[in-house]
Amino acid sequence: MPSADTTQVSVDEPDLVRPTREDEIAASGSELIGGPVGRRALLGTSWWTPVRVIALVAIGMFALGMVQKLPCYDGAWFFGASSQYTHACYSDIPHLYQGRGFADGLVPYFDKLPGDMEYLEYPVLTGVFMEVASWLTPGSGSIQDQEQWYWMVNAGMLMACAAVIAVCTVRTQRRRPWDGLLVALAPAFALTATINWDLLAVALLAAALLMWSRERPLAFGVLIGLATAAKFYPFLVLGPLLVLCWRAGRWREFGTALSGAVGAWLIVNLPVMLLAPEGWAKFYGFSRERGVDFGSVFLVISQRMNIQITPETANAYAMIMMVLACAGIAAMTFTAPRRPRFAQLAFLIVAAFILTNKVYSPQYVLWLVPLAALARPRWRDFLVWQACEVMYFLGIWMYLAYTTSGDAHKGLPVEGYHLAVVLHLVGTLYLCAVVVRDIYMPERDVVRRAGDDDPAGGVLDGAKDVFVLGRAAVPHPVPQETHPGGPPVEWGNRDPEHRSP
């Protein structure tokens, strides 16, 4: 038997989808490393599997993002309010080390902070992450030295999260491992990874999606609960899962997932909720009372029309728009000719939350990157969206540089910043539109065109419908040639006794 370090693996396996064969952008980009892989090519030793290659690329890109923060690490965080914006290297992490009491050994949620904030305004699991990083930070030296160390410790922990995200994305859609390069090489991912602690929730959600794809609903639910304990948005994906399981009649699996999510969330939150109720409630009160802020459509309207939008008004309009978006996604799920893929709807619901929110911090793009790679693994569309996000990343910092540089007016005036916000909105809407088109025209979906149904869908993959509306009630056979080696499949069949393999 050949040893593991000498076995060669062919990349011409019949069930492996190679982007360089189906994506012209991927084929063109591959010229940098010698061009598309030929039919008889070998990857070399078995150690260089797609998951390892993509994990290393993700770590390398993360490291480049750390290098991009070097001007701030060398002093801009501490000695110049505007220089951290002109260099586009701002991060919340070093500022909150002292600003949220970690430098003084205060316990999050239990100890009051000096000033108006009173308590840490982050969900419990993120607070635990921040606290663990403070334990690993040396307490000697100046406060600037400690803040540098705190950022480095957090960067190391977040790098591990980035690797988890890349690995889970690769493994979620088994026949399309190289789609993970969309995550690993995403420029906005590298630029925003160390602004805040969002990667913790993104990693937990990515792991949850992997568990669902492997038909482990309880593990999926537990990870969703943990992700929601780190950031609110992961809980949103249970909405699309509900309507998908409704259409497929998979109520038991959805119930298991929901129970796991609620249970895991309670295990993390209940002790703090009972022992430090004021500190625990700070995140939810701060989210509700926070005013219209950077990146939102509300801010553009407020500044362009010179009107004051109160937090209550913004909350009401955001809620109305989000409810309408959820209703639209539900209607689309029941009326689409084929049941939408789980990743498609997960992307759409999180994108809707981002688009209707009263604030859009530049690191929120991290929420969408792995979902976009699973929902629309097409380099052209992905890069168009990423270009818009990079422009917003530069626009927000240049605008802040303009507002903090006094009479020097270094940076981008308000009109330029509004253009950056519009670019972000248009780029996200564009990707949403392409995903919606794929749902109503499944023959345009690159995942299904390769012969798959819903590789990230777990028990939904290949399941038959039990509840549909409108034209979706008519069976839609899949051509024989799209499923090599298998019989034709009628995805519109509403047999309630069907069980996926």
Alpha carbon gap, first and last residue: 32 Å
Strand order of the largest sheet: 1-2
Strand count, sense and barrel status of the largest sheet are:
2 strands, antiparallel
Q: Provide the helix percentage.
A: 55-70%
Mean pLDDT, nearest integer? 88
Work out the strand percent.
Answer: under 5%
In N-to-C order, the SSE pattern is EHHEHHHHHHHHHHHHHHHHHHHHEE
Ranges with pLDDT <50 over ≥5 residues?
A: 1-14, 40-45, 478-501
Number of E-type strands: 4
Radius of gyration: 23 Å
Number of helices: 22
Instruction: Choose one word for the global shape.
Output: globular
User: Quaternary arrangement of the chains shown?
Assistant: single chain
Briefly note the structural class of the backbone.
mainly alpha
Subcellular location: Cell membrane
Membrane topology: Multi-pass membrane protein
Transmembrane segments: 47-67, 149-170, 182-212, 218-245, 257-277, 314-336, 342-361, 382-402, 417-440
Keywords: Cell membrane, Membrane, Transferase, Transmembrane, Transmembrane helix
